[in-house]
Fold this sequence. Notes:
The complex is a heterodimer of chains A (about 100) and B (about 120). Chain A is mainly β and about 100 residues long. Helices cover about 0% and strands about 50% of the residues of chain A. Chain A contains no helices and eleven strands. Chain A has strands at about 5, 10, 20-25, 30-35, 45-50, 50-55, 60-65, 70-75, 85-90, 95, 100-105. In chain A, the strands form two sheets. In chain A, strands 2, 4, 5, 6, 9, 10 and 11 form a seven-stranded mixed beta sheet that branches. In chain A, strands 1-3-8-7 form a four-stranded antiparallel beta sheet, with no helix packed on it. In chain A, β7 and β8 form a beta hairpin. Chain A is globular, with a radius of gyration of 13 Å. Chain A starts with a strand and ends with a strand. Chain B is about 0% helix and about 50% strand. In chain B, β4 (about 35-40) and β5 (about 45-50) form a beta hairpin. Chains A and B meet through β5 and β10 of A and β5 and β10 of B.
Amino acid sequence: xxxxxxxxxxxxxxxxxxxxxxxxxxxxxxxxxxxxxxxxxxxxxxxxxxxxxxxxxxxxxxxxxxxxxxxxxxxxxxxxxxxxxxxxxxxxxxxxxxxxxxxxx
Amino acid sequence: xxxxxxxxxxxxxxxxxxxxxxxxxxxxxxxxxxxxxxxxxxxxxxxxxxxxxxxxxxxxxxxxxxxxxxxxxxxxxxxxxxxxxxxxxxxxxxxxxxxxxxxxxxxxxxxxxxxxxxxx
Lengths: 105, 120
């Protein structure tokens, strides 16, 4: 299953909303996770089951979607949120999207 | 605290071998599938290999099948990735990760990674 994320780079000002998209090449139900990766760090799980926040993840992060179209929304960007975000399907053999680089505008 | 820590990376020549280790703490290793995921410099994430909770099931990406072997030592709470016939394209940060829920193939937490560089 090929995962396609858009856009590749998203420029947003602090305090604004960011919307990241992820599309699967075939049906994956809600077997979709989102990760955040900051420079020099390992990825961190944010969302699983398309919309369930992982332990300790702030409420400003929300996920939605099912089937083949998914969205990660960050409601009010904080300085620590600027990072690369990856989606990953786990409906079968796990595959990742190519990432969206969320940068400060 | 649930934690995994990788070790064993380094510089190796093409065709050489390397053994990575992942030390787990804060959870029962035998209850979870464990995974290796890699990231080439400046690139995205690629799933490499997994081993089932009982160690009987092992899975590999096509890109490493026949060259890498995953194993676990539950008595030492450790998972290993034996890499042989290494290629330049295997150069990457290798992350060990615990499965979120036994065998969902969803990864959390991840270790800090160990860097493998294949170069002559």
